């Protein structure tokens, strides 16, 4: 009897229809796992989505790219396990901490602790002549990142035992929104200095090339985010950076070495920071560093976690809606409500910061890009996120990939920064609009105005560190603490006012009935 050929046109078409059609079989809840080959593809997709932003944070802050990628994957794996595989989130590097890290590197309390060699490398990084911070300097920043994790953990425990309203009283949208705006606006100078020509960028007379590359990157990223559909809409940073690099390559090819905007980092520099590598240098263990205690790092970095709490909370509400929609779509009931796990999400976020900080990665948060990707594909499987974290850790060992990332032109990074940093500031406005903040309230105006002026003024008048009674206070941290204290003082008597307003409203309603 002849063996039946399963690879007929009809059979292959039926297989594709079954595997890729948008039916109930292609949607996965957090506790469901796709077949192995699908799981791998979905995991790669999640890595592609998180990759541009996470890597960009490393390039801007001077943290090791390989370590940042590894820390992102490890924190994601730990988050997934800590939350009992119930919350499908990817942990990536956060832009909220950029100003705090940069300001910390100029503080004498840190610089005085560095060896001569590390101090020389730090000065090269500050002058944008080196892409990497010295490990000694990163170690001090790590301590602040580890301690910032305690803020999220504390917020999670407060939510668990006291409810979300307590957090909203301590950190109302007037504070979290204003801090987000300050973070974005204090980075505006960095974005323009990277996107615009500088005296030592390239040969005289070729500065137009920098403008072309940075503008192409900026405009293409904006257009991609606005007009692309589906999964492509989640990759504007990747596509914008790719197009910027292509344009830089065309200019280099046509004009020669004088128009070379690409940067280079010797393989030896990557390998020298690695604790172990292969003989050919293709594989290298990421450059792990460990925290060193620093009060300056704590005061600079720890308060920034305040700004990430509303973002992480909003992601949880968003995820809850999407997952419930998939459960209804599949006709299944979840054994738990995702939104009831909000406290666990905040605790997991904080532990993720501590894990990343311990090994030398930047502080982070769960990524909205990955949530949107899951919403588009209807794949909310925690197993996919677990696999993505493991694959990210493996990728971080490949030296050629790390070299290629470091080679991205500064003009491309600058073009991305103009869009990203402005988006952070706009997100702060969105928080206050969403929460319907009363902009005619004297209390709200006072809190917002104080945070904005202290944060932004401190950046441009004192290079990010405000001298206060002989102590250098990081501007964003100072603005956040002052805003919290001022809001607390101005909130005294609010209960009476609310009661009075309620009584007036009730009287007006009674009169209307009559």
Please write out the topology.
Elements: H1 9-20, H2 36-61, H3 65-82, E1 91-93, H4 98-104, H5 108-111, H6 116-126, H7 135-162, H8 164-170, H9 173-186, H10 188-195, H11 208-227, H12 236-255, H13 267-273, H14 295-301, H15 305-330, H16 342-359, E2 364-366, H17 368-377, H18 382-395, H19 399-406, H20 410-434, H21 442-462, E3 465-468, E4 471-474, H22 475-490, H23 494-513
Antiparallel strand pairs: 1-2, 3-4
Provide a quick synopsis of the model.
68% of the residues lie in helices and 3% in strands. With 514 residues, it is an all-alpha fold.
The overall average pLDDT, rounded, is 84
The tally of structural domains comes to: 1
Major sheet strand order: 1-2
Describe the biggest sheet? Answer: 2 strands, antiparallel
Note the run of SSEs as H and E.
HHHEHHHHHHHHHHHHHEHHHHHEEHH
Which structural class best describes the helix and strand composition? mainly alpha
Number of helices: 23
Please provide the count of β strands.
4
Kindly report how far apart the N and C termini lie. Answer: 92 Å
Rg from alpha-carbon coordinates: 25 Å
Unreliable segments of 5+ consecutive residues? none
Principal-axis shape equals globular
Strand content: under 5%
**Helical proportion, percent range:** 55-70%
């Amino acid at each position: 009897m002849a063996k039946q050929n399963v690879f007929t046109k009809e059979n292959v078409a039926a297989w594709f229809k079954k595997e890729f059609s948008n039916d109930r079989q292609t949607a996965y809840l957090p506790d469901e796992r796709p077949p192995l080959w699908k799981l791998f593809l979905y995991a790669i997709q999640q890595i592609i989505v998180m990759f541009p932003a996470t890597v960009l944070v490393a390039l801007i802050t001077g943290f090791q790219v390989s370590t940042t990628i590894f820390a992102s994957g490890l924190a994601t794996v730990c988050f997934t396990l800590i939350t009992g595989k119930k919350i499908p989130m990817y942990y990536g590097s956060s832009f909220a901490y950029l100003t705090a890290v940069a300001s910390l590197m100029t503080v004498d309390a840190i610089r005085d602790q560095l060896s001569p060699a590390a101090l020389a490398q730090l000065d090269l990084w500050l002058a944008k002549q080196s892409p990497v911070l010295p490990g000694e300097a990163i170690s001090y920043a790590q301590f602040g990142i580890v301690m910032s994790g305690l803020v999220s953990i504390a917020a999670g425990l407060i939510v668990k035992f006291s409810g979300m309203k307590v957090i909203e009283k301590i950190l109302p949208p007037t504070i979290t929104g204003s801090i987000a705006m300050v973070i974005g606006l204090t980075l505006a100078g960095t974005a323009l200095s990277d996107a615009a020509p500088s005296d030592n960028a390239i040969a005289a007379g070729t500065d137009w090339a920098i403008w072309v590359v940075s503008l192409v990157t900026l405009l293409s990223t904006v257009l991609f985010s606005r007009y692309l559909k589906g999964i492509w809409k989640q990759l504007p940073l990747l596509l914008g950076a790719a197009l910027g690099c292509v344009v830089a390559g065309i200019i280099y090819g046509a004009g020669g070495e004088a128009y070379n905007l690409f940067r280079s980092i010797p393989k030896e520099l990557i390998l020298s920071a690695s604790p172990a590598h292969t003989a050919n240098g293709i594989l290298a263990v990421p450059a792990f560093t460990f925290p060193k205690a620093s009060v300056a790092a704590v005061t600079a970095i720890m308060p920034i976690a305040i700004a990430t709490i509303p973002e992480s909370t909003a992601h949880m509400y968003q995820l809850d809606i999407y997952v419930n929609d998939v459960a209804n779509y599949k006709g299944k009931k979840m054994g738990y409500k995702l939104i009831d796990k909000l406290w666990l999400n905040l605790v997991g976020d904080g532990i993720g910061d501590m894990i990343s900080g311990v090994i030398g990665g930047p502080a982070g948060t769960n990524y909205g890009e990955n949530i949107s990707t899951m919403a588009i594909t209807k794949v909310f499987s925690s197993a996919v996120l677990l696999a993505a974290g493991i694959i990210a850790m493996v990728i971080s060992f490949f030296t050629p990939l790390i070299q290629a990332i470091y080679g991205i032109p500064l003009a491309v990074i600058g073009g991305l920064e103009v869009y990203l940093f402005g988006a952070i500031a706009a997100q702060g406005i969105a928080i206050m609009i969403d929460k319907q903040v009363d902009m005619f309230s004297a209390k709200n105006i006072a809190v917002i105005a104080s945070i904005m002026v202290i944060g932004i003024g401190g950046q441009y008048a004192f290079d990010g560190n405000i001298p206060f009674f002989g102590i250098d206070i990081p501007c964003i941290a100072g603005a956040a603490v002052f805003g919290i204290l001022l809001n607390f003082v101005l909130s005294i008597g609010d209960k009476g006012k609310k009661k009075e307003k309620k009584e007036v409203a009730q009287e007006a309603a009674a009169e209307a009935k009559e």
